[in-house]
Amino acid sequence: MESKAKVLIDCQDAKGLVYKISKVFYDKDLNIDNNREFVDKEAEKFFMRTVVTGKFEPKELADELTRVLPSNADLRVITPRRKKIVLLVTKESHALGDILIRHADGELEADIEAVIGNHNILEELVRRFDVPFFHIPTEGFSREEHEEHVMRMIDELCFDYIVLAKYMRILTPSFVQRYEKKIINIHHSFLPAFIGANPYKQAYERGVKIIGATAHFVTDDLDEGPIIAQDVIPVNHRLSWQEMQRAGRDGEKIVLSRALNLVLNDRVFVHGNKTIVF
Amino acid sequence: MESKAKVLIDCQDAKGLVYKISKVFYDKDLNIDNNREFVDKEAEKFFMRTVVTGKFEPKELADELTRVLPSNADLRVITPRRKKIVLLVTKESHALGDILIRHADGELEADIEAVIGNHNILEELVRRFDVPFFHIPTEGFSREEHEEHVMRMIDELCFDYIVLAKYMRILTPSFVQRYEKKIINIHHSFLPAFIGANPYKQAYERGVKIIGATAHFVTDDLDEGPIIAQDVIPVNHRLSWQEMQRAGRDGEKIVLSRALNLVLNDRVFVHGNKTIVF
Amino acid sequence: MESKAKVLIDCQDAKGLVYKISKVFYDKDLNIDNNREFVDKEAEKFFMRTVVTGKFEPKELADELTRVLPSNADLRVITPRRKKIVLLVTKESHALGDILIRHADGELEADIEAVIGNHNILEELVRRFDVPFFHIPTEGFSREEHEEHVMRMIDELCFDYIVLAKYMRILTPSFVQRYEKKIINIHHSFLPAFIGANPYKQAYERGVKIIGATAHFVTDDLDEGPIIAQDVIPVNHRLSWQEMQRAGRDGEKIVLSRALNLVLNDRVFVHGNKTIVF
Amino acid sequence: MESKAKVLIDCQDAKGLVYKISKVFYDKDLNIDNNREFVDKEAEKFFMRTVVTGKFEPKELADELTRVLPSNADLRVITPRRKKIVLLVTKESHALGDILIRHADGELEADIEAVIGNHNILEELVRRFDVPFFHIPTEGFSREEHEEHVMRMIDELCFDYIVLAKYMRILTPSFVQRYEKKIINIHHSFLPAFIGANPYKQAYERGVKIIGATAHFVTDDLDEGPIIAQDVIPVNHRLSWQEMQRAGRDGEKIVLSRALNLVLNDRVFVHGNKTIVF
Fold this sequence. Notes:
homotetramer; Rossmann fold; 2 domains; 7-stranded mixed beta sheet; 4-stranded antiparallel beta sheet; 13 strands; 31% strand
């Protein structure tokens, strides 16, 4: 029976890697559907993403590849499996709505396990799509207590990625570390410009002629994680910061969905504070 | 005889300004070729740029307009006159070259009085276009002494604007204040991201997916002056910072020339730390 | 009591128009919140959009303006009123979904009266938002008969604009003429490139490096109506036409929503086969 | 002694190609500096561009690769060599000027053998850069006779590519066929929109909101050759077609230089009427 897998390799660079890897595929009579590599010469790192088809046992393929790769290689042989995501939201609906619509028409390559909101404003929208919504209020709780509630909820769910679809709470290091490389955020500016609160107001006050949006993995440092995708929108002196905010939403939702799609397709390698996007 | 003028008004907002101003034009039987206004409601400021043609005495027109404008209005009646610019350069030729070519084919709406370089590398290129080049070396001089030489040279020249076409020296406050609102710089990043030295290296290290260029008026605060124009260029993980730098040059020269063209056409109002661009 | 109105003027150009119009506003003690004009010199046409506030009777204001305008001027004094739209759809959900989400969160400045589909695939999505969906099937009917059914349905509804949100049927001249300047379409290419069927396949076969989307008013000539907004998305040789189509959807929905927003805000003048967008 | 070569392969797709090719590199102890492949599944074609370094004889490397490639493979082993270009121009200087500046500062990876103009307007500019300029006038000659003169001149020169830097003459099929895949043109529109004469006027009359520029290889069919690069510039109703033309020039020169750079770096494969750009 024909199988299909994405082979992802992230390892120390070495001579002959392409040869050795492609020899494994060739010896096992696999077809290469798609192949992309990148060598970061400064860091001496090798990245490869290959889609193979043929008759093979994923475990066996992984073992044979491991034999030819440098030690400490990060190898993943990913067979087709529908991924799952959990969304965290606050009050704004545009990023969430875009994902819900894509989910509803089958374009999103993942199932939405649940949406968790620190407000309940978006519950109605989420329920329209028959997706579970959990309201975890912040009132009466410290930041740590509230996050504890969120983590307990998340840990009961099955998921591959947590998507912050305009979740307007700052996460603590313990949250971020618990879900390392699994949290994707949309920041409403062209990072690293306008880190922090109300970037549109900052952009308005600075008088920029272009605003942007940035989707990135979340790390300890606020708005400093590896960038997956960015986009920009031209503005001018006629726009108030509220109008910039409105104009910027289109960029935010498109960039988040594009980044999410890349991640769900296993096209993104995290490499220090950067990404390799194939 | 038919005259033509650009009327630029920057004043406190007040009721009936458009009526009163257009009444002056109407009473003098002038044609409005082009008209744009903007009211900054927050600051309660009114900006207007009108191109008028007809039979009129500019001084008289200014007087009549002054009569209907709020006190302290900044009014300029600009009759057609070829402007002059002085360029400051260091070693990179792309921004300078773009301006020289536009100058040579008549597209630049100004004459280049001179190019001043703190290195003499670009002298050959400038001489090819029969433009005076002055080399004011930095070796053996303090920053203040060197700038003193540059200012003395500039003050002997006739100019409307000083264009920093990749001039890689930081200007002192006394230089900046002496030529207030007259210095245009191209910064090789999407400001306010990557202020300061080597923004391409900073951009590379941050792993951004888009780089940019920003043309702005120079003020005391490094890279903080009013932005005139910006543009962006997509990049990816495959580019070294040197390759980003090379890719970014196209953006730099285009943005600088576009901003220069706007300024030379009297289309830019400076308003605090922002610009109104008509 | 304070009133507010958008004054839209489209007339033959003449000397003193700005003066005469602003005099009417001034004499009635109105505030100008926002004002934009444009003169098409070739066509000798004058366009103006002014937002005024103050104490006034719209009918009276219109009468006084009419007195100072050239004969045959097209004058509209539009007081705040929530507009209504009808959507026509086929099978694709992205453009419809984007409008439904904006509608649900209050960002769309109109109510959706109904969605009419020639298929019933999108009924479920529309019903999730408590918006009426009418399925008018094509099977067993000639193009004319089917359109007759659609027109009968539309005529029973109250609406300002008909939005073709990926409605994949060609409209007959009688339909188009009946709703002149009221039908907005999104064409999935950068018009005038790739007119007609399957523009993504055409784009793929031509090997373009950028694809686009165009929102326009519908006229008799297929895909030839006045363009309201356009946007582009970079592509490359690695994309199949189906992948171009998927990538292009983001552009389509954003451009359609942006155009719709402009039209609903009365910012678009139709001028021959072009638009003036303020 | 260390050598370096770009290996370009364009052949029928087959199983194990990557393995067989990388085995040749591995057996010869070569380093892969950079590698990109693409398989066009529809056409069953394989494209690969690899930069290798090491100790090797190019002829030998080519022979060994030929042995493992399908018959009829198009294989090129390109060792470092400065390329040469010939420019054809008419009256406009922006595209020519951009290339001359890049040439002068060492950014262009080619030498300019000569510039040939059907007018002599640009002679002065070209001579400023000590580049030979040949004026081949059209007056008194038929299209065929004029082209005969141009071809005779070109054939005496040594060149890799002919660049039409705003050469406003239509080439005959015999000219195009003589220099197949060697002629690069910049068309001043977003092809395939506005084929033919005065695309800016066409764009103006159509009322588009975005204009573009397209660099492509020249084939028999006017403006129908394989596209190498495209870019766009936003416009609006305020621009006359002459202003669109002026705004468009920036796009034209940047796109032409970018395309030229890709071609000079052997990054472009022609595949039917399309390009693969690595």
